[in-house]
Amino acid sequence: MTETALSTKHLLGIKYIQREDIALIFETAAQFKQVINRPIKKVPSLRDITIANLFFENSTRTRLSFELAEKRLSADTINFSAASSSVKKGESLLDTVNNILSMKVDMIVMRHPAPGAPMFLSQHIDANIINAGDGTHEHPTQALLDAFSIRESVGELEGKKIVIVGDITHSRVALSNIFCLQKLGAEVMVCGPPTLIPQNINALDVKVEYDVKKALEWCDVANVLRIQLERQDIQYIPSLREYTQYYGIDKALLNSLSKEITILHPGPINRGVELSSDVADSDQSIILQQVENGVAIRMAVLFLLAGQKRL
User: Fold this and answer.
1) Catalytic status, residue 61
2) Assessment of whether the complete model's pTM goes beyond 0.85
């Protein structure tokens, strides 16, 4: 394992790390991917580290992926759910975390509905913090595993054309992906209904397309997002049926393109809405590879932030 460390104490967002950090995470994740495909999948790398998983929002894939990554590294873990905690009684975020830290916790993995919550904590506590999603802001480990999976599928990202399709306005995955892909030299386009594309998107130096077929014809890879109805306070589209009619991707649409493209999806998939089952389960889809790579990427992030130098 390399002796090089990340340039930051926390992983708060892709915006705050360097291209060299991403390369180091990928290099480390590739080694851990070999580990988790061995008959004995555990290593003692974080045997002396205690990690608290604080999820103030519902999560399945991300929470399970982090928990599995921690177990593979032999860390001690504490799992915290806001639904059954003193937060429901009015306890502040900082008090909650300080109470957990008094149990001698070294690292915190946190998902929170408020954008900036991980950044706020990082300014008040000493533990390493990993942002597992903060509102509509960022989801850095998802972007890292997406880019890692794309690189496995189509090679280095420099010069590659990646389109992100769907609900861009409410997606923390979209923002983190844009930052990550651009740092790795890819061209990025966003595609979706005008009501689901942020008005200031041009400030991020991305292309914008409202016709999904044109977007797919342009790209090498399409990362398809779901409509995040739980984050929408007003109706941004007439109906899911109409969204599917204009922006849903099915096998007939893919077969009509002049080239074969790679399909990603961060999950959960709303089958029959943004993707048809024959696309999600096709050879062009690398969705299950994303899930596998998520464990390796999160192992790498935990390992590097903990400052351990051994496998």
Assistant:
1) yes
2) yes
